[in-house]
Amino acid sequence: MIPTSIKGPEGVTQPSVHAVVVSWQGKHLIGDCLRALLAQRGQQLRVTVVDNGSTDGTAEMVARDFPGVDVLRLPQNVGYGRANNEAIRRALADGARFVALVNNDVELGAGWLEQMRRAAAEQPEAGLFCGTLLFRGQERVNSTGLAIDAFGRARDRDFDLPLAELDRADGPVEGVTGGAALLRSTALEKIGLFDPAYFAYYEDVDLSLRARRSGIACWYVRGAIARHRFAATLGADSPRQRYLLGVGHLRTVALHQPLFKAAALVPLTMAYRAAVKAPLELLRGRPSLALAELRAAAGGGLMALRAFSDRSRLRR
């Protein structure tokens, strides 16, 4: 039997799962997200919405329409990782055994949390869990976890595959996507929380790689279904998204690839973005994306330099 609650101070029963939903300008999304989250049957959980400096009335709407949900208001948008960390620290301090991360544009399917908890009970060596993330309104796969190639680039595994063709059982995966994940508290206590240097994108890759380096497995749960309004916050292939992906990639390469390989990959990737990808975007008539590639090369290079410094300091 999987426990769903624990005893807190003075014998008060505390939910053992704390769910965190970070939202920025997501008033139009978060209602569906919370309804699906609160509908997880047979599970006691505490839900916290972190309003990441929104100006669209998200916090007021959640407080009014979902009175059982905690709202943590941040004065400005501090990024995905930092915002999650604010709520995760509170969850750990309250004795949560698990933290569920759910994007505001994700709707959990029935039984998602139950499937995740069962997998966690059956796989004690695993600390980070993800399920089958589908595109909302389509029977196509958004992600079954993360795959990382030889250049340190992270991709959603099985991206855009028809669900009917998905032939994958529960098992280990290179990384979990932060869109809908369950994290074991003991794993977080060992590896730490999200790296605040990542504003958005690749922070889940970094967390997964740190877990693996510490001997903690990432695990895929086929039956835990959720649906995602893909890129609803920043827009699919927007200049902002392109820039943040490029910067996050270079920091992750500098932190996690073997040192000599990272020292070669960082300048090569910067050159490729500036000399190949940016001109190609100009030829395609997309100057904003060309500029994003140039900014990603420059900004990513600076982030990589800081990462090399962090790497040497952390591994002394």
Topology readout:
Blueprint: E1 5-7, E2 13-15, E3 17-23, H1 27-38, E4 45-52, H2 58-65, E5 70-74, H3 80-93, E6 98-102, E7 106-108, H4 112-122, E8 126-135, E9 141-143, E10 146-148, E11 154-156, E12 171-172, E13 180-184, H5 185-191, H6 203-213, E14 217-228, H7 239-256, H8 259-283, H9 287-314
Helix pairs in contact: 1-2, 6-7, 7-8, 7-9, 8-9
Summarize the structure.
The protein is of the alpha/beta class and 316 residues long. It is built from nine helices and 14 strands. Helix content is 42%, strand content 23%.
Number of extended strands = 14
Structural class: alpha/beta
At the fold tier of CATH, the topology name of the largest domain is Spore Coat Polysaccharide Biosynthesis Protein SpsA, Chain A
Write down the overall mean pLDDT.
93
CATH architecture of the largest domain: Alpha-Beta Complex
Number of helices, where a helix is a run of at least 4 consecutive DSSP H or I residues: 9
CATH superfamily membership of the largest domain: Spore Coat Polysaccharide Biosynthesis Protein SpsA, Chain A
Q: Main sheet?
A: 10 strands, mixed
Tertiary shape: globular
Strand content: 15-25%
- Low-confidence blocks of residues: 1-13
Residue share in helices?
Answer: 40-55%
- The N- and C-terminal alpha carbons lie at a distance of 43 Å
Rg: 19 Å
String of helices and strands: EEEHEHEHEEHEEEEEEHHEHHH
Number of domains: 2
Instruction: Using the coordinates above, name the CATH class of the largest domain.
Output: Alpha Beta
